[in-house]
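Hello Y.,

Per our agreement to keep a running log of every chain we model this quarter, I'm adding this entry. I've kept the format consistent with earlier entries: sequence first, then predicted structure.
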Amino acid sequence: MTAPGMSKHARIWLSDGSGAPTSDLHELSVTHPTLFGRPAPYKGTFDALVPIGTAIVDAARDDDSLFPEAEWCLTFPAASGEIYDHPEQLNLATPVVLQGLIEGKWLNRLSGTLEWRPASLGNNLLADGPGIVTTLGAIEASEQGEVLVSYQYAHDNQAVTRTQRSTLPDLRGQNILELVRAVLAYGRDTQQAIDWIDFSAMGTTAAIVNEPARLQAAMRASGLSPSELATVAGFQQLGVRFIQDILAEGIGVPAGNPITIAVRDQHGTIVGQGQLTWRAHRPD
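Predicted structure for the entry above:
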């Protein structure tokens, strides 16, 4: 791993902890409780060149619609070959640095597919700053902090601010120590460098797709039974309606409008910030 601040780009392991079936992610042998309490395995992949602090992202499709998520990332205070080579030695006393991430989602690209990567890679931003220096154990104890990701869109000719928020207490009970160990072991075994490890969108306000009321309304409207929802086909059917309903609201980030991120520690001090803007697709 590289020390924070050494580069304006980072190689980040992006986690998906949603429990949704996917066809293009590596599944780890680590589970955690999802929003409805059911255990699900962590899955993920690498975004090899995540900008730090500021970025402009170009859409590749005419129908692209970007929705940001507020997420936490972890690295270590100093590069350590020992940590990388022997992740099993990590424990709750291990010092870490936490920082915030804008995890971009081209939400339209998730509809009717099991592919996760086209919607999630190349549209992310790591906040710039010192982050929160803490330990893995403190995450499970009393550590406080928050990631706020905000943008504006227009509704009835009025500017509306939407904010996604994830707090450090949202990480409690999410098996973070085992996730970090598993990601480092995967990087070691596949000889892939890792600068930061992302934890997925944790908490009901971290992402629009995490909002329980939206999920429950889509489940009721789908007319699918619990057994049908447990199948891949049923989940896809639910997902198509769920995503289409969100897109129809017109509350994604308008092209050209900045998405800001602010990370605050337990004292309310800003320890990370940044801005991401996306540009609409321009036909060749």
